[in-house]
Design a protein that fits this description.
alpha/beta; Spore Coat Polysaccharide Biosynthesis Protein SpsA, Chain A
């Protein structure tokens, strides 16, 4: 049975969230896991076996452990994934194949689902930290004007700063994202001065107020999003704020065949 926790939230303006003084029932928090079958590097990735369970089952089970999770839904474009999810007692929805991003796929689910807050959990992170979901949800609810929240982790491996596959972010004084980039952020110009800089890795976990999520597919794609190939830049280019909460644990995703053995080894330690 879902535990119902009431959280008071206040918001103002078009890019805000719930109405002033409303209360959010945690059963209205819906986690959606986008899971496409046709991955370029790993076709059928959601159905890969990881230590005896499919990847989508492992992600689903981790998401269910979040204290703020009221409901978990897999959003997919393939009946094989639907059958796999239903086989372990999960809920899945078929969505259109032409979506350009996972956020657009989640927006389709949100348009037909009762909920006030929707969480985008990546379908290729079988080691998802449930606490990161709770941190992101609470970050959204704690800020009156927030419509979108995400998470980041401190980069501790120097090589990641220059790695274009590691997305970096920088924040303002109120923990809103100033920018996201595949390039080093910030760039330390005077290295001889031994300037200390905190570099944050952005993790692909998002929390949306329902109205903001439904508006996303209507927003024009900007030049920065096209250049960097980062969908979160569409929000910034269209004037929205993204609240960023820092978490302790990095995400581990399965992107290429070599990642499978690494993740299975880590699963054996949990």
């Amino acid at each position: 049975m879902i535990a119902c926790h009431l959280v008071e939230v206040r918001a103002t303006g078009r890019k805000g969230g719930a109405k002033v003084g409303s209360k959010l029932d945690m059963s209205k928090v819906v986690i959606v896991i986008p899971a496409r079958y046709g991955s370029t590097r790993l076709p059928g990735k959601p159905l890969l076996s990881l230590a005896g369970k499919t990847m989508i089952q492992r992600v689903f089970e981790r998401a269910k452990q979040a204290k703020t999770a009221g409901r978990v839904i897999v959003a997919t474009d393939d009946e094989r994934i639907v059958k796999a999810v239903e086989s372990f007692g999960g809920e899945a929805r078929i969505t259109r194949t032409e979506h350009r991003t996972g956020t657009e796929r989640i927006a389709e689910v949100a348009a037909h689902t009762d909920g006030e807050v929707f969480v985008n959990v990546q379908g290729d992170e079988p080691l998802l930290d449930p606490a990161a979901v709770d941190t992101a949800v609470n970050s959204l609810l704690e800020e009156p004007a927030a419509a979108i929240a995400t998470v980041a982790v401190l980069i501790r491996t120097p090589g990641d700063i220059m790695d274009p596959n590691v997305v970096k972010t920088v924040l303002d004084f109120e923990d809103n994202a100033l920018y996201f980039s595949r390039a080093p952020l910030p760039w330390v110009r005077d290295s001889a001065a031994k300037t200390h800089a905190r570099h944050l890795k952005h993790l692909g976990l998002y929390v949306f107020q329902r109205d903001a999520l439904l508006e996303f597919p209507t927003l024009p794609q900007g030049e920065l999003e096209r250049i960097e190939q980062l969908e979160q830049l569409r929000w910034l280019e269209n004037g929205w704020k993204i609240r960023v909460a820092e978490v302790e644990h990095d995400a581990v995703s399965v992107d290429v065949p070599e990642d499978i053995a690494k993740v299975e080894s880590l699963l054996g330690k949990t």
